[in-house]
Amino acid sequence: MKKFLALILALLMLVSLAACGAETAKEKEEEAPAAHNVPAEPAKEETPAPAAEPAVLADEAHAAWVAHGQYLLADGTQNSWNGKDSEVYEASSLTAIALDDVKAIDDGLYNALAAKEVKYLYTIDLLFGTNDAGWTTDCLIGGKLYHANGSYAFKIAQCTVDVDGDNKVYAEDQWISDPKTAHAESLTPDTMFMPVWQEEADENGFSWSSNPVVIGGAGLYTLVIAQYKNASSPDAAGFGIGLVLKEAKSGIDYEEVLEFVPADHAYGIIGGFNDWSDDVAMEPAGDNVWTGEVELTAGDEFKVRADGDWTYNWGDPDGNNFVAEEDGLYTVTISFSGTDAKVDVAVKAAEPAAEGDAWLIGTWEGKIDLVKILAASDPETAAMFGEGPIELVMLMTFKEDGSLEGALDVEASLPAIREAMKNVLVALLEAQGMSVEDLEKAGMSLEDLVDQSMSQLDPDDLISSEDMSGTYTVEGDKVIINGQKDNVFTHVGDTLVLSADEFGEIVFTKR
Questions:
Q1: Residues 402, 350 contacting (CB under 8 angstroms)
Q2: Strand runs (DSSP E) across 356-493, as ranges?
Q3: pLDDT per position as a tens digit, 252-281
Q4: Using CA atoms, how far apart are residues 462 and 374, in angstroms rounded to an integer?
Q5: Alpha-carbon distance 366 to 507, whole Å?
Q6: CA–CA distance, 155 with 134 (Å, rounded to integer)
Q7: Residue 134 pairs with which residues in a beta bridge?
Q8: Beta bridge partners of 228
Q9: For residues 107 and 244, is the Cβ–Cβ distance under 8 A?
Q10: Among candidate residues 421, 384, 409, 403, the one with its CA nearest the CA of residue 463
Q11: Where are the domains of the chain?
């Protein structure tokens, strides 16, 4: 729908330009002031030039170095990972400094960097460990394994910045640290734990996919990060990071990791399918084995975790979220050998429709009022379509293999789409202080503008066929879509009725 409105707005901008025309500016000439004779100044003694300022080591290839993580910035602003608002990107951007500037931060850190060939150098103040990120990560403190709150974890990213109107669009070009490309070392091992830079996890589960972690306790820190002139390799770090505690704060304690006993815990599946809340419980399925089922859409990310929090959680072999490759009902199984966990994920084939459900197989047709549907989610846009109804023809095809395909019958819906287009154009013209007569003055009729809009319209901009497809199951007179109990057709006589509080009933008849 947003693409649909953007298309119309673009056309209206062209019309507005044609209607307004160009204004002619008049140039004004100003007389230059008359020259005056100025007496020569006496010669002054030359003073020695001031000493050159130390060179700031800024990265010209990247417009910004940005701090990422779920801790607080120095002013108390909540930071986050990539994809945050441009204002937070700007506030979490580091400042380029000279090597001599590090002397004022910490002598030991300066000496460590002075021994390196530093190419770029940046700094920022950050507040770690004072807010609850809602998850934990592991780290080593004094050789022992600890759980640390997620507000102690961080990464730095070298970013490109594109300007889009009044907005700046940040894109992460290089994460530090990062698998295979950015080997970083801790320059202050008493305050920062840096995991091993290797693909295979070590005995504690750390690899180059693990995050750096602050281990000096909660507080306000000055972070200094350097890129060295040498490239990253397994034997040589290409980056160095130091953390200097400026002010200790009360915050979240570290928790020593004790021996994990699988049978002492409950397990669940959590992910984007349920907004990362309310785990789907897994049931015991053998000795140290638990299993559960969840309906997923292609692209959904998910993990398994213990006891409804992030102290113990499992993803793919690299520790990342699992990603569903296709729509379907997934069986997720976690099994333990000692304390080593293995998670198996399998999508179950859709069950064919039962012989008694043959009445359902085929294509069903129903009319939906676009104005009512929009009014439930976007009243402002709905108002632009007029009072309605604007009825689009929807097709739902139920297949024998238990899959469902939804689509808009474009040809049958064209008259309604055209009427919707006309209503929106008139509303947008009025919003810009224009009328249909203004269009005619610009040499264009309303019908011409509708024709141009229709020629560029993708029906998926109105209603996405992807959102209407998936799987179905039949329970009595109910047809349940994608396993969602609130997305149900009811078999009534020769019709299927879809009911919703937001827009009433949609009645489908078989073609």
A1: yes
A2: 362-369, 391-398, 403-408, 470-475, 478-481, 488-492
A3: 999 998 888 899 999 999 999 999 988 999
A4: 10
A5: 6
A6: 18
A7: none
A8: 118
A9: no
A10: 409
A11: 64-256, 262-348, 355-510
Name residue 368's amino acid.
Answer: I
The owner of tokens 């990362």 is 276
Report the candidate in 86, 83, 80 with the shortest Cα–Cα distance to residue 167. 86
Q: Which residues are bridge partners to 268 per DSSP?
A: 281, 305
Residue 229's SS3 state is: coil
Residue 483, SS3?
Answer: coil
CA distances in angstroms from 142 to 193, 208, 312, 489, listed in the order given: 10, 20, 21, 60
Measured CA to CA, the distance from residue 79 to residue 67 in angstroms comes to 8
Q: Which residues contact 6 (CB under 8 A, 6 or more apart)?
A: none
Token digits of residue 387: 């009072």
Instruction: Specify burial of residue 117 (Cβ count, 10 A radius: 0-12, 13-18, 19+).
Output: exposed
Tokens of residue 462, six digits: 């109105």
- 164: Cα within 13 Å, side-chain hemisphere: 9
Q: At the top level of CATH, which class does the domain 262-348 belong to?
A: mainly beta
- pTM for this one? 0.49
- Single-letter amino acid code for the residue at 397: T
* pLDDT tens figures, 32-77: 454 455 555 665 666 666 666 789 999 999 999 999 999 999 999 9
